[in-house]
Design brief:
Layout lengths: L1 H31 L1 E13 L7 E9 L6 E9 L8 E7 L2 E6 L7 H16 L3
Antiparallel strand pairs: 1-2, 1-4, 2-3, 4-5
Helix pairs in contact: 1-2
Length: about 130
């Protein structure tokens, strides 16, 4: 029975672990990343049955160091970006597929949710 409880606690900790990894990567890009401009090449809209639509925005940007073009994508609010729009992009030279676009940090809701979920899992009784 204790093994099942430990397994449930580990499964409950996975969202928090993933959120912390995302926050650390984003902060690393903010501190050590290289700024450049990119162009929106394609937008794929996803509509959920009950909820808002989101856009997966594909962008193409040129590396400042190597002079090569790279492509990356990110998720944004619906109709925030248009195809052909020029955007400011920050990236790490070793991870060109990971970019940040907006200065706004949007991970606080997920962090709070995952902490509450972990606390719920720790204190629930089987």
């Amino acid at each position: 029975m204790i093994g099942v409880y430990i397994l449930i606690c580990i499964i409950g900790a996975i969202p928090l672990w993933k959120t912390i990894r995302f926050i650390r990567l984003e902060e690393k890009i903010r501190k050590e990343g290289i700024s450049t401009s990119g162009i929106v090449t394609h937008i794929h809209t996803t509509r959920y049955q009950r909820g808002p639509a989101t856009d997966r925005v594909h962008t193409r940007y040129s590396s400042v160091l190597a002079g090569q073009y790279y492509e990356a994508s990110f998720v944004a609010k619906h109709n925030k970006f248009r195809v052909g729009q020029s955007i400011s992009v920050k990236y790490l030279p070793g991870k060109t597929d990971k970019i940040i676009v907006s200065p706004k940090r949007g991970y606080w809701i997920m962090l709070i949710f995952s902490v509450v979920l972990l606390l719920f899992v720790f204190f629930c009784r089987i």
